[in-house]
Automatic annotation (TrEMBL), chain A:
Membrane topology: Multi-pass membrane protein
Species this protein is from: Vreelandella songnenensis
Keywords per UniProt: Cell membrane, Membrane, Transmembrane, Transmembrane helix, Transport
Entry's family note: Belongs to the binding-protein-dependent transport system permease family.
Protein name: Carbohydrate ABC transporter membrane protein 1 (CUT1 family)
Compartments, record wording: Cell membrane
PANTHER family: BLL4140 PROTEIN
GO term, biological process aspect, one: transmembrane transport
UniProtKB/TrEMBL annotation, chain B:
Keywords: ATP-binding, Cell membrane, Membrane, Nucleotide-binding, Translocase, Transport
Entry-linked SMART domains: AAA
Name under which the protein is recorded: sn-glycerol 3-phosphate transport system ATP-binding protein
GO cellular component: ATP-binding cassette (ABC) transporter complex, substrate-binding subunit-containing
Lineage, top ranks: Bacteria, Pseudomonadati, Pseudomonadota, Gammaproteobacteria, Oceanospirillales
Gene3D superfamilies associated with the record: 2.40.50.100, Nucleic acid-binding proteins (2.40.50.140), P-loop containing nucleotide triphosphate hydrolases (3.40.50.300)
Organism whose genome encodes this protein: Vreelandella songnenensis
Amino acid sequence: MMLSAHHKLQLYGALLLLPAALLLTTFAYIPTVTTLISSLFLPGFRGAPAEFVGLENYQVLFIDPTFWKVARNNLLYALGTIPTSIALALGMALFVNARLPGRGLVRMAYFTPTILPMIAAANIWMFFYAPQIGLFNKLLGALGFSGVNWLGDPAVALGSVMAMSVWKEAGFFMIFYLAALQGMPPELKEASDLEGTSRWSFFWRVTFPLLMPTTLFVLINALINAVRVVDHLFILTKGGPNNATNLLLYYVYENSFAFFDRTTAATITVVILLTLAIIATLKFTLLDRRTHYQ
Amino acid sequence: MLDAAPLIRFSQVSKCWGSTTAVRSLDFSIAPGQFVILLGPSGCGKSTTLRMLAGLEAVSGGEIHIQGQDVTHQPPGARGLSMVFQSYALFPHLSVADNIVFGLRSRKVPKAEQRERLAKVAEMVDLTAYLDRKPAKLSGGQRQRVALARAVISEHPICLMDEPLSNLDARLRADMRRDIKALQARLGMTVIYVTHDQVEAMSMGDRVILMQHGEIVQDAPPGELYNQPATTFAASFIGSPAMNLLPLTEGLEAAVIEGVPETPVAPLAAATGQLGVRPEDIELRGAGEPGVPATVISDEYLGADTIIHLAVGRHSVKARLAGRQSMAPNTACTLAWRAQAAHLFGSDGKRRDDLAPCNLMPDVPDDADARVVPRLPNVGSFAI
């Protein structure tokens, strides 16, 4: 068979794409599609074939109060951790980007939590939060306050988990901000200094707008992490007390591997995927228009 | 030359980084309305000097005064000057208009006045049609004009320019030289302009401060710099091709060029130094005529003129002849120049005006005043 030059080029391109396409299909697209399919079926008992039930699984899920509690927890978790860790990351990046004695050491110190595996970090924080011997309660005790049951009190537990997440994430986001700050030509600061622009004004009129692409990137990452990373729950609270710290992905895990309810797990997964897709689309369309890319 | 009240005064200003000295006790004053060029090779301290004046670099010693005020430790914004950067330093996320009025917003100039001044300045630098564009959508020349507009709109009396034309192509650079000079004259600004390009220095400056190793070598108008270079460095830095510098030795009764004992060129006292002659001041004559004997090595045709490379003793000499001249290699000839075209430098490289070079062209009527009358500098191949 004779191929024209154009077709040859197309075949060549397709072959180049093949390895990536194969991996993505096997590990991303097929699982997504099978998850979507299994969320539309009810498994049959005693070897009976699965029964197509349409959106019934979703109706059941949406009247499940635990699901709403977990979703609400995850929303609070996202609202609590994302802005805090981004603001903290930006503040730390600005701080270590300035002339500062021992700058390299400070940078490394800020970045250390990122290097630690989440499981290890969670174990460290277990000791901080422990009711009797924990660091925080010891400190409070030394100041004459009564201790707090950081992880056992339903009113406090989610806040404790969030605090640890912020500690873990901020250093990671700082690296992106630091890289962006170092990519900014120093003449911009000099030019604005010559005009007598205050530091505050320079930050809001120049630095922050020029960091927008980084902020957008970090925002998406932080959002995904808020839903995706639940490793610390295994160590700290296991979703308790009374689901006070349960998050969506951990709830998926529980349904799937503790309650062996794969159908509910699949249904929640589809809901999570849809929500994330909508938010990411909104962010890229709305914020991109106001973001300057160099 | 200077007014009683200079606009800018440097007294004993120096700058060190650790053990390296970038600028060594600089002393000079600048009068209002002057276009002053800081000229020198890279690393000579000219940019550091400008940045110290701007307040972007801390001074290690000495004082800087602007309008009689000691500004040595003042922040840049309090010094009342504007600056055009080599990289233009435009804010990439702001439109041309916002870039230009950036400083006015910082100084909280009322909106209406901002618009008025913007319109005037944009008209002046021919950017009115581009006010809504982002810098990335502009050509190099347009970006340069935005940077210029940002400096002009501030209405500061002093404008600093740090090699502003070095990122432009040659043709545009020639246009911008004229535009900047015209703008400066029209607004009566005092401009301090850093460059390593002698063409920019000669064509734009009212006054050129030539620097080397962090010190001032010569501070003079362009014509004087060209016609009476203070040192061999000044002589070789200005002019293209550079001035010929020939070491002298003792002859029988006078100093002679090394390897050419038969022709006296200067008094005996000049013997340890060097003789400088500009390529365009050399006249080529037939072999055997009075003058310095030489042999042609090659010729180099440049269009408007031809550079002839010659061997004099063991040294090589360039002569510039008008138009197209062709000379076969190894042709013997004689070089001659008028007494006022020869420059004598001592063994320390400094100019010696106490000695009079010999006149190799006694047949040409000598104009006694020719040395003091500056002629138009002939640098490179541009028309002034």
